[in-house]
Each structure stands twice: as C-alpha cells, then as structure tokens.
Amino acid sequence: MKLTLLSVGKAHDAAYATAIADFTKRLNKYMAADWVFIAAPKNAAAMQVADLKKAEGQAILQHIEKTDFLVLLDERGKQMTSVELAAFIQQKANDSCKKIVFLIGGAFGVDETVQQRANFTWCLSKLVFPHMLVRLVLSEQLYRSFTIINNEKYHHV
C-alpha cells in the first residue's frame, strides 16, 4: 500500500517544513508516502468561491485514480482517535487497498464533485486550522498510526 498526501496550496512553509519532513521521513520507514501539491489557479483572488472550488476540484480529481481510496479532511467528517485511525489504516491494508490519498482541500473547502468522490471524510478537529498546521498534524498522526500498528513505544495509552 502507498500513501499520497495531497494538498491544495503552496509547498510547505519554512516554519513547518522541517517538522513535516521529519514525520514524513519517519512514516516512509513503514509505508511509501509522498506529498503532492496542487497550486491554486493563477487568478484565484479574482474568482468567485464556487468557481475557485470547481477549478481546484478539477485539478484534484486529475490526481486521483479510480482505484485510490480517497480520504477527504473536512471539519464535517467523522472524528477518530489515534488508535481508531491506526485500525482504519490497518483495515485498508487488509482489504488490499493499493493507495490511500489523504486530501487537504483549498481554503474554502472542496467542490461537491470531490466530496462525492471521497470514500471517507475525516475530521481532525471541529476547530479550523491553517493548512500548514493540518499538514503537520496529518503527517504526525499517520506516523503515530504506524507505531500503533507495530506496537512501538511512540504512542502512550
């Protein structure tokens, strides 16, 4: 199984880049994981929100294959504990899932076409966070999940 961490927006901000890279490197010891960034449309500031979401949605869907299991991060999704996330990932591996794509949408969320394509919608928190912080939390929680799956010391119950 492979993990793709897909995010709308610029590459990692310098203030977060080292930590995100560290957790991503740790994660890669267990599972191939890579970040893919989708740039905002060039005229994004002048676009209406619905048009922006539609344009971003088209770009997002170009990175998703039919067989990918798409996990959309959204505050309206289902919350999970770290242990539940680990069990979720383990279940996808048991189901012979080839690739899980974790998607961090744009600043205004994602177009309904992306919502409909999502196989699962996950809520990190009922709070709204900046993209860079979500990237950091996502990479850390995925790493934590694999330490849980492998019964390693990182996660304390």
Annotated CATH homologous superfamily: SPOUT methyltransferase, trefoil knot domain
Strand content: 15-25%
* Number of contiguous helices: 5
**Largest beta sheet, briefly?**
5 strands, parallel
Low-confidence stretches: none
Q: Mean pLDDT, rounded to whole units?
A: 94
CATH topology: Alpha/beta knot
The main sheet orders its strands as 2-1-4-3-5
Task: Please tally the β strands and state the result.
Answer: 5
- Determine the N-to-C terminus distance: 27 Å
Q: What is the radius of gyration computed over CA atoms, rounded to a whole number of angstroms? A: 15 Å
- Domain count, please report it: 1
CATH class annotation? Alpha Beta
Q: How would the global form be characterised?
A: globular
Written overview of the protein:
The chain is of the alpha/beta class. The protein has one domain: Alpha/beta knot (3-Layer(aba) Sandwich). It contains five helices and five strands, in the order βαβαβαβαβα. It has a five-stranded parallel sheet. Strand 3, helix 3 and strand 4 form a beta-alpha-beta unit. Helix 1 packs parallel to helix 5 and helix 3 packs across helix 5. The model has no long low-confidence stretch (mean pLDDT 94).
